[in-house]
Amino acid sequence: MDITFDHVSFTYQAGTPFEGDGLKDVSATIKDGSYTAIIGHTGSGKSTLLQHLNALLKPTAGTVSIGDFQITSETSNKNLKPLRQKVGMVFQFAENQLFEQTVAKDIAFGPKNFGVPEDEALALAKRMVELVGLPQSVLEQSPFDLSGGQMRRVAIAGVLAMQPEVLVLDEPTAGLDPAGRAEMMAMFAKLHDTEHLTIVLVTHQMDDVADYADHVLVMAQGALIKQGTPREVFADTDWLRANSLGLPKTAAMAERLAQRGFHFDPLPLTAEELATQLLPQIGGGAHE
Amino acid sequence: MTPAIAVSHLNFHYPDADHPALQDVSFEVGAGEWVAIIGHNGSGKSTLAKNLNGLLAPDSGVVDIAGMTLAEETVWAIRAKVGIVFQNPDNQFVGATVADDVAFGLENRGIPRAEMLVRVQEALEAVEMSDFASREPARLSGGQKQRVAIAGIIAQRPDIIILDEATSMLDPAGRTEIIRLIQQLRATTQLTVLSITHDIDEAAKADRVILLNDGQIKTTGTPAEIFAYGPELLALGLDVPYPEKLKAALTARGVAMPQTYLDEEGLVAYLWTLHSTM
Amino acid sequence: MNKLLLGRYLPGDSWLHKLDPRTKLMASFYYIAIIFLANNWQSYLMMFVATMIMVAASKIRLGFFMRGVRPMLWLILFTVALQVFFTKGGAVYWSWGWLAITQYGLTNGAFIFMRFVLIIFVSTLLTLTTPPLALADAVESLLHPLRKIGVPVTELALVLQIALRFVPTLMDQTTKIMNAQRARGVDFGSGNLFQQMKAVVPLLIPLFVDSFGIAEDLATAMDARGYQGGDGRTKYRILQYHPRDVYAGGWMVILTLGLVFLRA
Questions:
Q1: pTM
Q2: Could you tell me which CATH class the domain B5-240 is placed in?
């Protein structure tokens, strides 16, 4: 299921705190099966763009096509449910959405809203708990007795239980420690590879973009200012700096090494790639 | 010289918990030093911070702050000397405006208004937030709110500032903003800084790093000494500085790399020597 | 919803905006009291003109005041109707059983209508030109003498201040949780009453949990910053009367005298 933005603009109602934080003529496609990263500063319009992915917001102008659905300013708020089932949204600090007495019930909440019978929804909960790497024993526990990281996994399981085709992640690792972050990112990569979910990741972590994404959208002041593969986007280091966007650590290191006289082609994005390209240049073979 | 913080044999156990949160923790922080305490979530870092100004009372052990032993009689005097910046920028913003929030701690201590006006102004200048004095918190970024929190502490003229994961909820821009501000403050004042963090870049700026694991001090050393542990840090739930990652990748490819920690510059220089002697 | 809760303050730099909030608060109450002195066309006309002068002085468009009247319209019309139908006296224009429209009824109805509108205009004027926080300060300052009889005025004022401070934070959180639950298939504001009430549970519980988290964090932060209760605290923000507050007082005296002369 492709998601296509066709000249989408969005203006917030005057007088709200978000005033001015809208979208300006955004055209882009998130391809079925892709792992798309959206980067940009706080207030660049990332969150606004995100809320268009399942029609929580409707464009003021232009069209958002989500599979067979066409969302314009005219679209009625009714009949959006099937769409919301197809696009699962994991918001920032998703653990804040938990409310049921048990983990199982909370995970089953989404599917039940979309008409899945209770026993099937609970069976889904069992599977999803495993998918997010939690033990079955948490199912009957209160979500509020779990650790912060575990609660977030329960929230993600609750979204996965809707069996969406697209999983949208808004800074899913914010506030986690490095180990928790790494585990969580590995989990999403697995969902992308084995469950064939299309993933849309909003993040400030350029290393995650370099490690996992295959397409990058760069937002600034509500406009889409660049898009391409991570290698294409990160290759233009001067442009990134001019827009005060960070570089992945490997790209920054490669740039430093290049200034010293090393040569890289193509731009390495991970420590492994960098090491491989360095090897012949530091006489790596000779040591063996 | 009296150390700013001296903790000896500190033990703390939350009433309902299975395991003690802190076990026999002892360390000292010299006046004017910047010490980072690192450890994964749940390693006891924040519990330790709350034990340092009496927000939590230890089961046993002694905490000395600037020569005063923490006890019921000294707790308010000690809180005047120790400022804590907490994790959530929103939930520690008491005042209705920036200036009000900075003044809050001063009001609590009964500082005369004339002096408050001066101190609030000075503190806001120190964190470069003077232009925002009458702003409401809803109109500030996370980094700006944390700067206001720091101003509120500076205004009280404390000896010690504790950053309790103060940057963990900020975006990279906000994080850099706060770390730069702390460096700046250290250059101009005698502040002792204790930063509790799992951000390796923040820890790298400290004079000394204390590695906490499951409520116990695992090891102490300069950032370079700690970072030399390399991939072992991963097992402790922490990140590895980038040069160590690259070193590991090169070692795996059969390149002989030095055991000591190299920062980025050092690593570039080392690799260039290899290139030149090829 | 936001605007309703925040008292619809409109920032500005008019003479009325600059008045001390205590003056505005007291003057508003005083105005509402003396309007009951008006009892004929002359006195009501004077109050109307005076109110329009104040509205003009606020430099705020009349539309904002009209919006203040709208939610009260049915209550006003109901009260006016009662006056019209049940006041006896003067010429009878229409009657049906015990219902009658009389001369006095009509004038009384018109007066009541006028009184309602003027009161709403003046209280709207107060909230439009005074930030909620300044109003809280004014209340604290005016109630300060009650401390002598053991009312914890400063504590209550701090509670009020913190509540106001966290309104935007909680509104923001409400929007976020609503979006998250909508994305999980909840329809807010559709279906029958029972369904709507059920839809509120996944919103309210997370909001409660979050509020408790905020309260706990806030208490810790206040503790760490040396908060020990109201005694011995000094105040950063203080209110100070200016000459313009005296002029405002004089204006109220003039209105009172005018009413005394003009009323029947």
A1: 0.87
A2: alpha beta
